[in-house]
Every structure is written in structure tokens, then in C-alpha cells.
Amino acid sequence: DTEVTQTPKHLVMGMTNKKSLKCEQHMGHRAMYWYKQKAKKPPELMFVYSYEKLSINESVPSRFSPECPNSSLLNLHLHALQPEDSALYLCASSHLSGSSRKQFFGPGTRLTVL
Amino acid sequence: AQTVTQSQPEMSVQEAETVTLSCTYDTSESDYYLFWYKQPPSRQMILVIRQEAYKQQNATENRFSVNFQKAAKSFSLKISDSQLGDAAMYFCAYRSETSGSRLTFGEGTQLTVNP
């Protein structure tokens, strides 16, 4: 299994809603990532989890709350988002050792904040 | 700080022809890795090819090959026998041992394949 899955594929939410994005992988990767991507731009790193612990937080606003319940799952909890948070949210995973640590990406969740 | 530059925002190629996408990077590190990712309209990022800086031999994956010039800090991607399915945004990315798991991406090149 060389796949990263993400649910939902699309999400529309109001600024007062609470929602969650889910990411799952079964490749035995111990690093998992959240990226935000705007149209025609490269992905921007938001968070990195290493061995289920938050290792990198790129100064992301607290309305985004990551969670890594176990080595296969990664969640991103959303609350009180702004319209400018509308974007494609990508999850990725990789090994933490080895030469290239290549990242495998999921298909993304397209988020629209009204 | 490491930077990655893709100087061609858009490129086009005729089906079955060859196209080369440019990427340059700036680093003071000696041990690093370079990647080309493809992102088609479906938006899933797919790893196309990777190159370890310590390897002199250029990486090749089927119709995709790179021209890695370490001294010039250049890492171009050549796509041979272009197919309609190659149409996508292509991102060059860099990772060093000191940056841990963090990837630095270029701004991307949008490739169009004309039938």
C-alpha cells in the first residue's frame, strides 16, 4: 500500500463552523505533514509530526489544530476560519530515516470558507 | 537559507517532442536531495524523480531524466516523447540533512502538451 488517503475531498464551511480533515497512511511512515496550497502556488508547510509528536509548527494560526492519534492517522481540526483560509489542504507522509525521505502526498481536501 | 528557483512559469511542448524544465537552487550544504513533483489538474502531487547530491550519475525514470549540475546548482528535468498526460504543474524541490524533513519548493512550471 503506497497511498495516502484524505477525507473529505471537498468541504464548504462557514466561519463559525467546526470541522476536521482526516489523513491516513499505512506505509509505516513515522513523519506526517500538513500543507496548505493556493492556486498556482507551491505547497506551504503548516505542521510536521515525527513519531506522533508535533515537531514543526510554521507559525500557523490557532484556528488550525493538528492532531496525530496514532502512527497512521493525522487530523486537522478547523474552527472559526476566515475566507482567506480557502485552499487545497494536502497531507503527506515519509520515513524519518533513509537517504531521501521522499514524501508521498494525498489527493488533498479542497476547502471553501464562506 | 535555501532557495529554489524555477524561471519558467509556463512551458508548452508538442506531443511526442522533448521538453526541458529548468530549476536552480542556492545552498551552502553539501549533502542534499532534489526532487521533481508533478501536480496534474486532479491536484495530487506525484513524485516524478529524485536525485541525491552525492551521486554523479543523473537519475532516470522511463521518459523522465534530469541534468544535475552540482557546481552550477542546476537541476533540470527532461521529458522525452511527451504525452498528453504529462500536462501538469511541475515543482522542483530541495531537502538537506540539516533541514530535516522540510522541503523547499520552487514556484512551479505549468506544462502544456499540445496534440
Number of distinct beta strands of chain B: 12
State the share of residues found in helices of chain A, binned by percent: under 10%
How many helices of chain A in DSSP terms? 0
Oligomer: heterodimer
Give helix % range of chain B: under 10%
User: Rg of chain A from C-alpha positions?
Assistant: 13 Å
* N/C terminus separation of chain A: 36 Å
Helix-strand category of chain A:
mainly beta
Order of helices and strands of chain B: EEEEEEEEEEEE
Task: Write a structural description.
Chain A is mainly β and 114 residues long. Chain A is built from no helices and 11 strands. The model of chain A has no long low-confidence stretch (mean pLDDT 93). Chain B contains no helices and 12 strands. The relative contact order of chain B is 0.34. At the A-B interface, strand 5, strand 9 and strand 10 of A face strand 5, strand 6 and strand 10 of B.
